[in-house]
C-alpha cells in the first residue's frame, strides 16, 4: 500500500507556473541588458549604418541593431546618440518622429539633441562621433 503523501492539485501547479514568469519580468525591466554598462551595447569601432540619404534634414533614423540614432539638423549636420536609456540601461527601440521612447519605463528623448523630454530619465543620451563618408553614414569611435 503506497504511503499517503499530500500532492499538489492541478490548480496549484498551474497557479505557480503562471506567477513565476511574472515575478521575473519585474526584475528584468529594471536592470541593464546583460548587467553591463551602456558602453557595452554601443559600437566600439566605426560602424557603417547605411546610405547618407536615409536621414532627411530635420529627421532621425533609429538603427536598432547598433543601438544608435542618427539625426540631421535643418542645416544638414549629422549627430548620433547611443540609444541605451540613461535611466536603467534599456535599449530604446521606438522612434516616433524625432522622439525616442524607452520601452522599460517610458522615458523619452529628443533624437535631434539627445535631451530628455519625459522622465524618469534625467540624463541626456550619450553623444557619439558620426560622419558621412563616400555617401555612407559611419558612427562610433574614430568615425
Could you give a quick summary of the protein structure above?
Helix content is 14%, strand content 29%. It has one helix spanning 10-29; strands at 47-51, 60-63, 68-72, 78-82, 94-96, 99-101, 108-110, 116-118, 127-128, 130-133, 136-139. The strands form three sheets. Strands 2-3-4-9 form a four-stranded antiparallel beta sheet, with no helix packed on it.
Overall 3D shape: globular
Q: Helix proportion of residues, in percent? A: 10-25%
Strand portion = 25-35%
Number of strands: 11
Radius of gyration, in angstroms, nearest whole number:
21 Å
Outline the low-pLDDT stretches.
Answer: 10-40
Output the strand order for the largest sheet.
2-3-4-9
Helix run count: 1
Q: What multimeric state do the chains show?
A: single chain
Mean pLDDT: 79
> Structural class given helices, strands, pairing?
alpha+beta
Main sheet record: 4 strands, antiparallel
State the distance separating the first and last CA atoms.
Answer: 77 Å
What's the SSE pattern?
HEEEEEEEEEEE
Structure description:
It is a single chain. The longest helix has 20 residues. It contains one helix and eleven strands; from the N terminus they run H-E-E-E-E-E-E-E-E-E-E-E. It is globular, with a radius of gyration of 21 Å. The strands form three sheets. It has a four-stranded antiparallel sheet, with no helix packed on it. A four-stranded antiparallel sheet has the order 5-6-7-8, with no helix packed on it. It is of the alpha+beta class. About 22% of the residues have low confidence.
Labels describing this entry:
143 residues, 11 strands, 4-stranded antiparallel beta sheet, globular, alpha+beta
Amino acid at each position: 500500500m503506497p504511503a499517503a503523501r499530500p500532492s499538489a492539485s492541478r490548480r496549484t501547479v498551474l497557479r505557480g507556473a503562471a506567477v513565476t514568469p511574472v515575478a521575473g519580468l519585474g526584475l528584468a525591466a529594471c536592470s541593464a541588458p546583460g548587467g553591463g554598462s551602456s558602453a557595452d551595447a554601443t559600437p566600439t569601432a566605426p560602424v557603417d549604418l547605411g546610405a547618407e540619404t536615409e536621414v532627411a534634414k530635420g529627421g532621425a533614423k533609429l538603427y536598432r541593431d547598433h543601438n544608435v540614432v542618427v539625426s540631421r539638423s535643418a542645416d544638414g549636420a549629422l549627430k548620433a546618440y547611443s540609444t541605451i536609456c540613461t535611466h536603467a540601461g534599456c535599449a530604446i527601440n521606438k522612434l516616433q518622429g524625432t522622439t525616442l521612447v524607452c520601452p522599460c519605463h517610458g522615458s523619452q528623448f529628443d533624437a535631434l539633441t539627445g535631451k530628455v523630454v519625459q522622465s524618469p530619465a534625467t540624463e541626456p543620451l550619450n553623444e557619439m562621433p558620426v560622419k558621412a563618408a563616400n555617401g555612407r553614414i559611419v558612427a562610433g569611435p574614430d568615425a
